[in-house]
């Protein structure tokens, strides 16, 4: 079963990528590795969401933002690789 099919079965949908600005690229493939950086949760106008759990973010909000970031990283990987099925391992 494909990676994307499994995501669909889990009820997850990959978010669209924002349009690149200037020389920005969402990821870079080098030596068989895909490097992705500078990603995080964004609000509806595309700005990064910032906060501190327990101060201005609840634990649930932080969880949802982390989940959104993970899905966004997968969107970048799909854009760069053409398919999520090429992913063999995620290295943090």
Give me some keywords for this one.
92 residues, alpha+beta, 2 helices, 60s Ribosomal Protein L30, Chain: A, two-stranded antiparallel sheet, globular
What does this structure look like?
It is a single chain. The chain has 92 residues and is α+β, with helices and mostly antiparallel strands. The protein has a single domain, classed as 60s Ribosomal Protein L30, Chain: A (2-Layer Sandwich), CATH 3.30.1330. Helix content is 33%, strand content 9%. Strands 1-2 form a two-stranded antiparallel sheet. A hairpin with a 2-residue loop joins β1 and β2. The longest helix is centred in the last third of the chain and has 23 residues.
Shape: globular
- Write down the CATH class: Alpha Beta
Which percent band covers the strand fraction?
5-15%
Oligomeric form: single chain
Runs with pLDDT <50, length 5+? none
Task: Summarize, please.
The protein has 92 residues and is α+β, with helices and mostly antiparallel strands. The protein has 2 helices and 2 strands; from the N terminus they run αββα. 33% of the residues lie in helices and 9% in strands.
Present the secondary structure layout:
Layout: H1 3-9, E1 27-30, E2 33-36, H2 59-81
Antiparallel strand pairs: 1-2
């Amino acid at each position: 079963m494909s990676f994307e099919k499994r995501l669909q079965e889990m009820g997850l949908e990959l978010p669209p990528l924002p349009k690149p600005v200037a020389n920005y690229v969402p990821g870079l493939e080098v030596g068989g590795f895909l490097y992705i950086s500078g990603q995080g949760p964004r609000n509806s106008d595309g700005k990064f969401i910032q906060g501190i759990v327990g101060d201005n973010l609840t634990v649930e909000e932080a969880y949802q933002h982390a989940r959104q970031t993970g899905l966004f990283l997968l969107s970048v990987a799909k854009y760069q690789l053409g398919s999520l099925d090429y992913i063999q391992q995620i290295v943090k």
